[in-house]
């Protein structure tokens, strides 16, 4: 099980590093427009879109590097889980992008968001493993 959890952590690290790096380059990330719109609504238009996408890129690259390195995994996982909760915001604030028929028929964007349930489960398993390490 120990190796399985390590593989989960490394897998999330690769995915987040990759997703994050793409956001540094305009129009490369398929999630760029969705992320910019979501951040704009959540922060009432107070953050410039160029800055918001770069900050998100930094966050995702940081999470990716944190998972890949294996250092401070508990803290990285808490940040990751917070980020994952926020990824569900478009389902509520941009339903026209998330559903063809709300609440049961997802668009490709909606499917992209809902797949994060698996990421969250993996994050919870990693976090529980870190808690178990502290008890030993």
UniProtKB/TrEMBL annotation:
Key words of the record: Membrane, Transmembrane, Transmembrane helix
Keyword Iron: no
InterPro entries: DoxX
Main location: membrane
Locations listed in the record: Membrane
Record has Transmembrane helix as a keyword: yes
UniProt cross-references to Pfam families, sorted A to Z: DoxX (PF07681)
GO CC, any one term: membrane
Membrane-spanning parts: 41-68, 75-93, 105-127
Membrane topology according to the record: Multi-pass membrane protein
The protein's name: Membrane protein
Species annotation: Arcobacter defluvii
């Amino acid at each position: 099980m120990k190796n399985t959890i390590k593989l989960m952590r490394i897998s999330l690290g690769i995915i987040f590093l990759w997703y994050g790096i793409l956001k540094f380059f305009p129009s490369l990330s398929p999630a760029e427009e969705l992320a910019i719109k979501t951040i704009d609504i959540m922060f009432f238009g107070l953050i410039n879109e160029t800055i918001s996408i770069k900050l998100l890129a930094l966050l995702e690259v940081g999470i990716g590097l944190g998972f890949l390195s294996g250092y401070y995994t508990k803290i990285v996982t808490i940040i990751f889980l917070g980020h994952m909760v926020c990824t569900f915001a478009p389902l509520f604030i941009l339903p026209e992008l998330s559903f063809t028929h709300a609440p049961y028929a997802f668009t490709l964007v909606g499917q992209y968001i809902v797949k994060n349930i698996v990421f969250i489960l993996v994050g919870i398993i990693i976090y529980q493993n870190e808690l178990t390490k502290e008890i030993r």
